[in-house]
Amino acid sequence: MISTELSDWLLDSDPALRWQVERDLLGADDAIWQSTRARVEREGFGAELLSQQDPDGQWAGGAFFPSDFAFDDEGSQPWTATTWALKDLREWGMAASALEGTAEKLESVRWEYENLPYWDGEVDVCINSWTLSNGLWLGADVDGLVDWFIDHQLEDGGWNCEWVEGSTVASYHSTLNALVALLDYQRTTGDTGRVAEARARGEEYLLSRDLFRRRSTGEPFDGRALALFHPRRWFYGILPALDYFREATSIDGAEADPRMTEAVESIRSRRSDDGRWDQEHRLAGEVWFHVDAPVGEPSRWVTLQAQRVLDWWDGTQPV
Fold first, then answer.
1. How many CA atoms are closer than 13 Å to the CA of 17, on its beta-carbon side?
2. What's the confidence (pLDDT) of residue 172?
3. Rounded to 5 degrees, what angle do the CA atoms 62, 176, 33 make?
């Protein structure tokens, strides 16, 4: 159990975060956290982002980039267009009913890449992962994307957004995003068999590398591989990876793999004396508004996720 001081700090937050604290850290009755979750569409982050939706169902006039984005611009990726907004609203727990008619409106939207139909996805693994998850949430026909992921899994078990440019080795970033989407598919449809092998191979890609190492050298694959941060866009992190495995083992009824131990303990070691974790990294880029603390300050979102992972992990270990 977390301290009263820490729980009060976490609960003094937007409904998008608060309901998860109530459910996952405090074990509140269903009626309590579901009541808080229902507020997401009416208050705070959820209501504000929902108010920015265009009449045609999009945000910022574009599928993945705002309509006024200059593709020759060397600046940072903006996070304001449709796919990002849907990802945020879904992860905040907004009910799909709050976006009634959006799935149908987006049928006429096209990706910036090759003018491809929105719900059919495009060639990027990460984009297709969010499209699959968003479509499942909104009730769009995205079934074909499941086959796409199976067909585009690489020989080493992972995925890479740069496959279209000839890459034959997987990427941590792409692999985690693909796994999250396939798990969303399994949870939503109950169809384990269709994705079981693909998920197992993708998970082994991450686990065989202890969730953060290069297999060739044993060194971290990126200088920020161990950073703790929120929100997560396309960028990989050990915290969202562990949160994926937390949920996956629950759905699959599987045991936690010991190869995650070092990543877990890396997170544990950075907990402050008062039980909080700091924001350690933030991708640059335009947003509608920030939902978490700046780098170097205590983060409610990181604290929620880190404590949730530790509670899960510690609950799986022998006494």
1. 21
2. 97
3. 80
CA distance 29 to 207: 34
Q: How far is CA 213 from CA 101, 177, 262, in A?
A: 44, 18, 11
Rounded Cα distance, 24 and 234, in Å: 24
Sign of CA dihedral 239, 309, 217, 220: positive
Q: What is the pLDDT of residues 16-62, one digit of tens each?
A: 999 999 999 999 999 999 999 999 999 999 999 999 999 999 999 99
Q: Where are the domains of the chain?
A: 1-42
**CB-CB contact of 129 with 140 (8 Å):** no
pTM of the full structure: 0.96
User: 53 is written with which tokens?
Assistant: 């939706």
188 vs 74, higher pLDDT: 188
DSSP symbol at 293:
P
Q: For residue 159, give the 3-state DSSP assignment.
A: strand
On whether the CB atoms of residues 272 and 3 are closer than 8 A, the answer is no
Burial of 64 (0-12, 13-18, 19+ CB in 10 A): buried
Whether the Cβ atoms of residue 279 and residue 229 lie closer than 8 Å to each other: yes
User: Band of the pLDDT at 72, cuts 50, 70, 90?
Assistant: confident
Q: Measuring CA to CA, which residue among 269, 230, 252, 249 is closest to residue 317?
A: 249
DSSP string, 99-155: GTTHHHHGGG-B-TTTT-BGGG--S-HHHHHHHHHHHHHHT---HHHHHHHHHT--T
